[in-house]
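Render Aspartic proteinase nepenthesin-1 in 3D.
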Amino acid sequence: MGIDKQNMTVIIDTGSELTWVQYEPCMTCYNQQGPVFKPSTSSSYQSVSCNSSTCCENNPSTCNYVVNYGDGSYTNGDLGVESLSFGGVLVSNFVFGCGRNNKGLFGGVSGLMGLGRSILSLVSQTNATFGGVFSYCLPTTEAGASGSLVMGNESSVFKNVTPISYTRMLPNPQLSNFYILNLTGMDVGGVALQAPGFGSGGILIDSGTVITRLPSPVYKALKAEFLKQLWFPFSTSVFNFGYLFQSHRV
């Protein structure tokens, strides 16, 4: 970030709109592995004032933001404008959050990259450069594995064995900031689930969420078929889930 290129490591979140990083001076911040962003040392950083069209608050000096996540994590601070170097491409006048009160399971990274569909997301702010298109490849859990994030419609960087498949997204005015797909069906071990709820309502694609949430009829059908096919012994649930299993392999 910035003309002086302070390196930041962030979580990629398709369900969030605002990109933010911890910054100094910080009031309440979690332990971060790398250096914290320092606006005072960046010649290209500017704060967003309250009379800016980006801000709707009444603070006479700076524009504040507050973001609360579903797991209880949160961040709040001031909006700022900075130059963003992204894969060799310089993005000017990028609006982001300077987090001065942050708490949550962020894994010691600098902050979070918002890839949602709102006006403040990275995708929207870089629309003129990348066309509002991005793709990402998640890494495996093996040591040394790495994924990738590609801004723009260049798909040749992915070494796919099979052709890339596409599916249409569903419009939803009440959830316009999210990416929504049509859940048409599920199967367990090749057995198709029979349940009402498929093909209606849609399902969110959220890279920042670790738990899949399903309509109750679909969840019950999934659980029943899963229990029918799985032979692992039960274990004590510590996360208030319905079932855990003992296994040395998956």
